[in-house]
Model the fold of this input.
Amino acid sequence: MLASVAAAALAAALGATTYTVDPGASAVRFHLHHKMHAVDASTSRIEGKALVREDGKVQVMVRVPVASFDSGDGNRDTHMRETLESARFPFVVYKAVTSLVLPAASGKPVDVRLDGELDFHGVKRPLALPARITFEKDGSALVRSRFEVNLEAHGIERPALLFVKVDENVQLEVELRLRPG
Done:
């Protein structure tokens, strides 16, 4: 209780702060499994903002261009863009809110749950994400999260190799460097 009051007082003293994703220091990675091989891809072309309000509420919006994921295999990436219909659904978008108890000192991680909505392949579904936020001495914040997304729940027909479909869940790992301003 005392920590919540102190965090609210600190946030009120600081005022609302807007953070912007630094794409040069951020990445989204995915891992897709098939019985015969695994696919890993990543992107740093991430756009996003987080607003930390005076009352400790946080609003987050992050979007990633589908076509920006790179697995190191151009043919596979082209097929992925076709499967995900990247021309029709160019972005994966996540919007969330949470309450934040600010740490007493920088460098100490805070575990939060982001309650939000994932818009993937034109299908919006609720998605609660575990996240760990570390506020750095330079005023930036590092946000890390690992979670799964079900392809079929978002209307995506799973690709197949030799008549065997990839697993329906994709594992994602997100690391975002947020800069104030």
Notes: Confidence is low (pLDDT under 50) at residues 1-14. Residues 2-14 form the longest helix (13 residues). The first strand starts at residue 17 and ends at 21. The radius of gyration is 18 Å.
